[in-house]
Design a protein that fits this description.
The chain has one domain: 3-Layer(aba) Sandwich (Rossmann fold). Helices cover 39% and strands 17% of the residues. The chain is built from 10 helices and 8 strands. The structure holds 3-(4-hydroxy-3-methoxyphenyl)-2-propenoic acid.
Length: 298
């Protein structure tokens, strides 16, 4: 076992112990796996697979046709309706980043095979709302960073309406989730918490400094408790951007906003984000027991 693996194992055992103590060894606690088990991201030939497509939507915001990647679950049928997770990339990425680095379709297919996931469509857009939406030579160029902010209008006014015209989805805030990694985590918190009429499930994975200051992000803490089904904030314990997640968590805790704050072993990388997708996706579009949120806090 490598150092990293043994650390993960210790944390996993400790957490399971804590979870079992809290819940009095209930069956529920034993279902909670805080670190994704080995093989969660391995392609299996013995199960059904979802489908990954590239789509183009017209963006009035940008004045261009824009690309997005869409995953539909195994057994997808036009005669059913589905909730949607909008899943955003980081500062150096684009609409292919999740696909190329995490193979989310493999993680999700495996979860479906174990009956651990509500059927949902996952949309992976390009979060840089500008005509040349490639990362470019300087990913921190001011116009590139600004385009991440401008994506709020593209998402709300162009992409979501396109998805809802094109796919059999449920057009309701309780059936829309927004999550992302790093720069996309900041976008998810900013746009999700800023548009509670559109989203009820919000996740920031290793959120970047584009995340609004807590008092700007959450001017009305009570409203979050009323409206959100799930607010998820996670970060690797070795991530240099931890201060962003920490300050957001501290403010939420101080103002009694129910949320998950999940610190996991790892840095600013896809080992962490794959685990986040594995954990977060399983909570979506199902009844939420907010009283177990604290088992993720350690
Ligand atoms: C910064 C550091 C990191 C920042 C953004 C990032 C906008 C984004 C990192 C990522 O998306 O991986 O100061 O400012």
């Amino acid at each position: 076992m490598t150092n990293h693996e043994s650390k993960k194992q210790i944390i996993k055992s400790t957490l399971l112990g804590v979870a079992m103590l809290i819940s009095g060894y209930s069956a529920y606690a034993q279902d909670i796996t805080i670190i994704a088990p080995a093989g969660f991201d391995s392609f299996r030939t013995d199960i059904c697979h979802g489908k990954v497509d590239t789509v183009y939507y017209h963006s009035e915001t940008v004045g261009a046709d824009r690309r997005a990647v869409v995953y539909t679950p195994p057994g997808f049928s036009e005669s059913q309706t589905y909730p949607v997770l909008y899943l955003l990339h980081g500062i150096g990425g684009d609409e292919m980043e999740w696909l190329n680095n995490a193979q989310p379709q493999v993680i999700l297919d495996n979860l479906y095979a174990e009956d651990k996931l509500e059927p949902m469509i996952v949309v992976m857009p390009n979060g840089r709302a500008m005509k040349d939406d490639s990362p470019g030579e300087n990913i921190f160029a001011p116009e590139k960073v600004e385009a991440f902010t401008n994506f709020e209008r593209d998402l709300l006014d162009d992409l979501i309406p396109f998805i809802e015209r094109t796919y059999p989805v449920i057009n309701d805030r309780e059936y829309r989730a927004l999550a992302g990694l790093s720069m996309g985590g900041g976008q998810s918190l900013n746009f999700g918490l800023g548009n509670l009429d559109t989203f009820a499930w919000v996740g920031g994975f290793s959120s970047a400094p584009n995340t609004k200051a807590p008092e700007v992000l959450v001017p009305n803490p009570d409203l979050l408790n009323q409206k959100l089904k799930l607010l998820w904030i996670s970060c690797g314990d070795e991530d240099r951007l931890m201060h962003v997640s920490r300050r957001t968590h501290d403010y939420l805790a101080e103002h009694n906003v129910q949320h998950i704050f999940y610190v996991e072993p790892g840095g600013h990388d896809f080992d962490v984000w794959k685990n986040d997708l594995y954990q977060f996706s399983q909570l979506l579009f199902r009844p939420v027991d907010k009283s177990v949120f604290n088992i993720y806090n350690f």
